[in-house]
Amino acid sequence: MAGPDPAIPSRTLPRDEGSPVTAPYLQAQGVEVAFGGLRALRDCSFTVDKGKITCLVGPNGAGKTTIFNVITGFLRPNDGHVSFQGRSLDGLRPQAIVAAGIARSFQNLRLFVDLSALDNVMVALPSQAGEEPVGALFRPLHVARAQRAQRERAREALAHVGLADKAGEYVRNLSYGEQKLLTIARLLATGAELLLLDEPASGLSAGALDGIMALLRRLQQEGKTLLVVEHNTRVVQQIADDVLFLHQGHLMAQGTPETIIADPALAEIYFGGAL
Amino acid sequence: MDFLYSYIILAEVYVLLGLSTNLLVGIAGIFSVSQAAVFGVGAYLVAHFLMTETLGFIPALVVAAAACIALNIVVTLPSLRVSGDYFVVTSFGIQLLATAVFTNWTNATGGANGLPGIPPPDLFGLPLESTGQLVILCSVAMAIGGLAFWLLMRAPFGRLLRAIREDELAVAAAGKNVLRAKVSAAALAGAFAGSAGGFYATFLSFVDPSSFDLDASILLLTMVVVGGARTLAGSILGPFLLLALPQVLTLVEIPTSIAAAMRQLIYGVLLILFMLFRPQGLAGEKL
Lengths: 275, 287
What we know:
heterodimer, A: alpha/beta, Rossmann fold, six-stranded mixed beta sheet, four-stranded antiparallel beta sheet, 10 strands, globular, B: mainly alpha, two-stranded antiparallel ribbon, two-stranded antiparallel sheet, 12 helices
């Protein structure tokens, strides 16, 4: 996909100079969100390229999670548009957006703690037989057969993130690092190709951090596109192809991690002048 | 022997109600205290059809179940917008409203005096008059209900409801239609409670509002808690145990005037003790 040279930070926003036939993979245009008097997002516009790992950075309260909520249909923006592969996502419910190929994780994980790791993943498998009562009641054998295949798929998703041996474990018995991996397995189960990860690396030990970074890169190699909220600049430097710098609900800059981190004006905002 | 049969029939009717309550409250986490109201509507409807001889027992049961499916969806609708504790208050109001209707719509319900002389159930015109036949009928109904509950719980539908109880937002983020699953749970609970009403009315041949009031709703919750939430075994165990209690009390020499109050007291104490010390009930999972 032809885009502008990523080495040049684009202080100004939309990249509509790309090929006229291919719409941007993910595009936000002029998104406005206000909570009462607080403008959480103001004229927020950016694009995400297919196949890249894009990190969304910015100080606390910059609107990073809010933009996730807008993209995934949990929050209706007061104004502006989001489109995915040229298709407008405006007004779609969360489940329709997952079906379109976008799934998100939560900063506070939101796992089903009373379910096993395997069941957590199985909930997210798309269109299962017996997911509504009529099928469950009147086609029990078909459902049981389909479940065996689904269970295999869920096990594969668990194996993919390195939790193959934890399938039967309840979430409350998993370590925090394992719980974070489980949220990614649950995302993979949806079959979405664009994954929105809210701080996948926060609160992890150094070892677990390396593991999750390797996992994110592997997902990228397998063809997933990742949009990641991340605070840790080391993680951003190591995994990001592209960085979106958000400040007070507005996209301040977009570019490679090197150019973003080297920009003294952005460092001033991000670290409050400490650097 | 008839005494034992009566106990079994009543317990089996309450098992159907327990399944209904367990599905809605235990599995889906929709904390309704108006299940007895739905039960009552089923009972009055079947009573009406049989007394006016407009329908046979099975068609009457089907119509009552269908009506209760619709009713329970409407009654549960607030839970789709109002969550948790607030819904308890809403459904409490619905229960009070239903009791008021049962008591005051005298033409249809007989008011506080109730409806006496409800004919016994029939199977396609063949009346089932002996208690033995009724035991078989209710046992079959309970078996069908239990099988349905088991099939629902082992299917992805059951897992989806459990996940919704824990975190609706996460279920939506997993791409699932939360609204449709909750409406389905309400519909199923309505079908169970409505048909339980039909069996109850025809077995007792008499219904009055006191069987379908708030006390009855709370008794149902107590059965589910004591038996064990979210499990088939719990839904069966609870009603059989709690309905045995009044029989045990009859063995103790207490005046009949205080027996009813005594029973309520014991139910209340049991509910509190189980919630405190064994929230998973005898055969269930933590509520």
